[in-house]
Amino acid sequence: MTEIEAHEFIERWNRKIFSWRAKNEVAAALRIQKFAMGCVFAMFLWMFTAIRQMRHADFYFGIALGILAFMAFCFSFWLASKIHQARRVFGYSQIINRKS
After folding, report:
1. For residue 80, which of 19, 16, 13, 1 has the smallest C-alpha distance?
2. Which of 2, 3, 19, 37 is deepest in the core (most CB within 10 A)?
3. CA 40 – CA 70 distance, rounded (Å)
4. pLDDT 10s per residue in the chain (100 long)?
5. For the whole model, what pTM was predicted?
């Protein structure tokens, strides 16, 4: 990802998720990444609940919930990884880049 693509990606997602809260691009990128990681954790719990639902109630309803949660989990994980990649391009990442 180039710097221009990273700026556009963060700007696009900042407009979609709580755009009025960001003071600058660094804060927006960190906030979006935290939001996406929170969604990943929530979808993991939702998938666990769907598995429990399959045992106690309707099996097909549990499968439908599980599939929906898995799709949301994949999307949130994709978003978090792309934001992390954009933050690394700018040098905003809190994880050390060992190559440099």
Report:
1. 13
2. 37
3. 9
4. 788 888 888 888 888 877 667 677 878 888 888 888 998 898 888 888 777 777 766 777 778 888 888 899 999 999 989 988 888 887 765 555 555 5
5. 0.74
